[in-house]
Amino acid sequence: MASNDIPYLQLDKDIEQAIRENRARGWTNPHAFRDGDIVRREDKAHDEATLTRPAFARDIEKIINIPAYNHYADKTQVFSFVENDDICRRGLHVQLVSRIARGISDLLGLNTQLTEAIALGHDLGHTPFGHAGEKYLSQCYNRRTGRAFRHNVQSVRVMDRLYRRNISLQTLDGALCHNGEFAHQELQLGTMDSFDALDAAVERATADPSFIGTLRPSTLEGCVVRVSDMIAYIGKDRADALDVGVIDSLDSFDSDIIGLDNARIINNLTVDIVNNSYGRDAIAMSEAVFRDIVRAKRQNYEQIYFKEGTVSEFENVVEEMFTEMYGCLLAQLQAGDESSPVFVHHVDKLLEKSHSITRDEYLAEDPDQIIVDFISSMTDSYFIALYHHLFPQSTKRLFKREYCSDLLG
Known about the structure:
Elements: H1 13-24, H2 55-64, H3 67-70, H4 90-108, H5 112-121, H6 130-145, H7 151-162, H8 169-176, E1 186-187, H9 195-207, H10 220-244, H11 262-277, E2 283-284, H12 287-305, H13 315-334, H14 341-353, H15 359-363, H16 367-377, H17 380-390
Antiparallel strand pairs: 1-2
Helix pairs in contact: 2-5, 4-5, 4-10, 4-11, 5-8, 5-10, 6-13, 6-16, 7-8, 8-10, 10-11, 10-12, 13-16
């Protein structure tokens, strides 16, 4: 069905009436997470909620002031090998996830500030070059340690262990369990009820990558962010693919309900989720919409991701660059070379910005983990600049299309 032939869905009349009536009488969703139930690793007077800075508003402010948040701006989402300021970078992606998730949470009567905190922090641990970078960094790490790198696990580490902002258990749980690659018609709540449970889950996810697929957010707000992550990228990646010429039109995609373009996908999935989740202790979509979103994801892989981004003509080059950089930085760290970028640009900067972490404590960690922390924190541009600083004779280049390529005739 052509994109314009698929209508914008509307809320079920009974659901819409219930939302309006419940709002008018000040109804509180019994399944929403309450600010008063927030759990933090440390009990600090400074972090107690106030009228001007409520519980999860504090998490939001902590997250956007972590230095890693700035790096979102120069981490590409999918199209890492095309210079184009119009394509989505991770900074825009988390804003889109936040906007969609807040909209759904508001309609469902959930805690929108918890939703926003999870959405803004969920990708803080992502690598340069999107999922391609994640794959190659994990390979480097695994060869030496037998362990795996996953960006959602690293997001928790950034907030909880590196910068130590005393982020809540609920926000960290949502970030850990956000993986939008796993589609479910219905998301039931997980049972992450303590920091001991969180720490155990982080460890297991690093030791056993298959464990990631079993994780479920322990708040409905986390479930909303997880499904919103998927909603945010399906249509936007198609729009970006049009902009960079990977696809010529949306005519090669199919849909019965959710639509082909970004606007319809966001609207129709939002409406269906609200229709199927209102008043429930789970986040669900109809069977027909679930089938449609599974098809949409498959078609994105076939027509976009297998052509560009994670699989491309630069795959071997990127893999080689990650391998070379990882080995070089690890050797410099193990040699105690204080002039190395791993000290000057990573360790020293982290100690300057972190709350309470000490140099001796951090350098006592596994050297491979320190290198993973450093490389995963890099932006695309910094990674390229550092690679050529470390390997000035290298002829490796990444961009298939530079800003002025179309002006060369």
